[in-house]
Amino acid sequence: MSSPTDSSDLQKELAQLVPNLRAFARSLCGNADQADDLVQETLVKAWRSRTSFAPGSNLKAWLFTILRNTFLSERRKRKFEVHDSDGKLAMQLSVKGNQSGHMDLLDFSKAFATLPEEQREALILVGAEGFAYEDAALMCGCAVGTIKSRVNRARVKLAELLGVTDAGELISDNGETPTRLHAP
Amino acid sequence: MHQNDDNEPKANGNSQGSSNDDHVVLPVEAQGRIGQHLRRVYGEILAEPLPDKFSKLLSELAKSERKE
Prior knowledge:
The structure holds 2 protein chains of 2 kinds. Chain A is built from 7 helices and no strands. Chain A is mainly alpha-helical. Chain A is globular, with a radius of gyration of 18 Å. By secondary structure, chain B is mostly helical. Chain B has one domain (1-68). Helix content of chain B is 50%, strand content 0%. Residues 1-19 of chain B have low confidence and may be disordered. At the A-B interface, helix 1, helix 2, helix 4, helix 5 and helix 7 of A face helix 1 and helix 2 of B.
């Protein structure tokens, strides 16, 4: 069993990754409350099986894998009902009204929500979280080429839906600098 | 639309006019634009204030271990 020092380190590291777990969970199940339940369940499972985590390996990848497996098994048990009737399910955002620039994000979210689930997942892991294709493939239990293909299809479809052309023409950007709130 | 994306991926060819998305590769700049938007949207979720329940849960887990 790990020493108290180890476990307080782990506690800190887990706490730091909670925002990422929440964001990933939200993109999987689309409902903020369900996503938070999923994150809590993931933290408990991770804590209980912490001795199986190989020190020095990628903690975030390990946690994301636990979260993803938990989501899939819960959904099999129909605990997470998926209602995507109006296409707003995936990655619901706190898009505040009347703020300039937010229309873009709303459009993006709508377009994102139309992608097949496995493409959304691949794009989040690689494009948003910055996982290597190889890590994303391990996490999703598929071939590296499959992940590459999913990411590419997702990008092509988003570009089509959002009117991004070769020249980089895009929905108006207000000259804002995109926020990049996480380390790549 | 077909969604059988588990077929063997093709190498990054550049042939235009194919109906198979695997043959379409976005120009780097367009990929960058899509990526910027994705990270901005994702970043909004990352930046949301965290409810206390998560830190409480982690403290409880750590506490329960000390009693073990």
